[in-house]
Amino acid sequence: MLLTSEFQKSIWTFLRVGWWSLALGFDPLRQGAYTASENQRRYGEAFGSILGRFISPYAKSPRQYLPKDLRSFDDYNAYITSAASLWVWSNSGIQSQREWADPNRGHLIYEHQAVMELMEYAYMLHRSLLERAEGYAEANEVFAARRALLRLQQDMSEASHFGEISDLLDYGWGELKLPELRGRIQEALSLREAETRVSEGRLTARVGQTLTVLFGLAAVPTVAKLVVQPLWALLGFPRPIDAAAFQTIANVLSFVGIGLIVAVLLKPLRFRQRYLAGRDPERR
Predict the structure, then answer these.
(1) What is each CA distance from 97 to 70, 73, 89, 101, 107, in whole angstroms?
(2) Model's pTM, two decimal places?
(3) Mean pLDDT of the chain
(4) For 16, phi and psi rounded to 5 degrees?
(5) Are 13 and 3 a contacting pair, CB within 8 Å?
(6) b/e burial code for range 264-284 (CB count within 10 A of at least 16 → b)
(7) Closest CA to 51 of 89, 18, 84
(8) Where are the beta strands (DSSP E) in 46-175?
(9) How confident is the model at residue 32 (pLDDT cuts 50, 70, 90)?
């Protein structure tokens, strides 16, 4: 409604769901101004209402939602906020593009649409990295995500070598709070890296405990033969007549002794694990 009442007729528009882009052109025979600066002077309040995403007759100053014009020349206006982007062609700008005109007005649309899609694509890649960062379970996945983030930053810095487009992309990514989003990704990756290190450390400790018990059990016959039986004879205890029975008694004593030693060695580690589990709010 705002476009119809305020601008009489728009030459072309395109919208996207959520964060959207809007492009406008004026009919030269109607209200459109000859230059972009004149368009901003005449219709700045309407532009501010579009970018603020509201239409209200009670709004005091819609221009407060109008950011700086990112176009360096006077052929069209380019505005970008965190809510939307707005491109407005002046009559002089439309006339300057007549040499490349096509029936679908693509000479006025496609270049800017490609720039905005590139800007949105970089934002979506960062959001995807942030969401995936919360599900990594291995340190290798975290390292791969860090490398992907570094490559993405490098690709973004080389997205365009044209000064105006490069400045526009940087400004747009700033409006979308991409630096803050990148910081949250790095923080999430750091947290997941610490968590995976703790998890892998616990797994290593469990494997070590298991191996300790297994090696202890494997040493039972050897300890019974080389330690228990000579000690038995040294202390002068009566020896059973049956050799098999004596060997069984020696094995049992060896098993009990090794079990006590393993328990004493593993007790501090188990105590520390219970202490850390009690301090972990996710495990309470």
Answers:
(1) 19, 14, 11, 6, 7
(2) 0.62
(3) 77
(4) -125, 145
(5) yes
(6) eeeeeeeeeeeeeeeeeeeee
(7) 84
(8) 76-80, 84-89
(9) low
- At 8, list the tokens: 């009489």
Taking alpha carbons only, the member of 64, 42, 40, 41 closest to residue 52 is 64
Instruction: Determine how β-strand 84-89 pairs with β-strand 76-80.
Output: antiparallel
Strand order in the sheet with 76-80: 20-25, 84-89, 76-80
| Residue among 126, 39, 135, 121 nearest 79 (CA) | 39
pLDDT for res 180: 93
Contact between 70 and 79 under an 8 Å Cβ cutoff? The reply is yes
What does the pLDDT read at residue 58? 62
Tell me if 228 sits within 8 A of 250, measured CB to CB.
yes
Condensed to tens digits (0 to 9), the pLDDT of residues 245-266 reads: 878 887 888 888 877 777 777 6
Domain residue limits, the chain: 2-96, 101-208, 219-283
Asked if 69 and 79 touch (Cβ cutoff 8 Å), the reply is yes
pLDDT at 270: 62
* pLDDT tens-digit map of 139-150: 888 888 889 998
